[in-house]
Amino acid sequence: MNLRTLGKGICRQSVPVWDLFVRVFHWSLVFAFTAAYVLSDDGGALHHAFGYVVLGLVAARIAWGFTGTQHARFSSFVPQPRVFVAYCRDIAAGRERRYHGHNPAGAAMIVMLLTLLVSTGVSGWLLTTDMFWGSKGLEVIHEICANSVLACAVIHVRGVLLASWRHRENLVGAMFSGRKRRD
Asked: Is 0.85 surpassed by the pTM of this model?
């Protein structure tokens, strides 16, 4: 079996889920947020630059959420509250359904992360303006938002690992390849 035959076999056994934009966005966001977070207080202009990169990435992702491919569109994965609650109940019972795209818990986490990232970025930007320069209250809000992003990212990774284990599927690998196994 040569590589071309192997590649065709893999494509028949899997389906495209996350497009190139979503994958590049995801890993770029991981890098930019991590860099901004690690640099934090002492990062100065570099911290600000990475913060602006995060805001730019999130703005592009929000736009792609309305215009992108099927699994990238918010309309295809943002759950209604009752669907999210039912899915969480199913997780606790160990009987949650497998999704090709984002499951309801993952979708809710995406909405939460995007909201927190915008809040972190906007509060950080405001701290550079004359009106809010040196504002201790806004600085606290900025730090709470950034720490909340980190906490949500940890929960997100745990959810990915749980879903990977329960559904016997490498979701981290799927976020690199863009493909998940066919049902």
From this structure: yes
